[in-house]
Amino acid sequence: MLINxxxxxxxxxxxxxxxxxxxYRAVLGVNREQVRPPGRCRx
Length: 43
Known about the structure:
- With 43 residues, the protein is an all-alpha fold.
- Helices cover 72% and strands 0% of the residues.
- It has one helix spanning 5-35.
- The termini are far apart.
């Protein structure tokens, strides 16, 4: 299966965006845990 350069770059950009989005969500999750007060009960 051959694809043209424009199609290849569009796919590459969508992959980059998905990776950046996942990294951003991971950072938010870590920050949320760091800000949480100690001794708080989790359920």
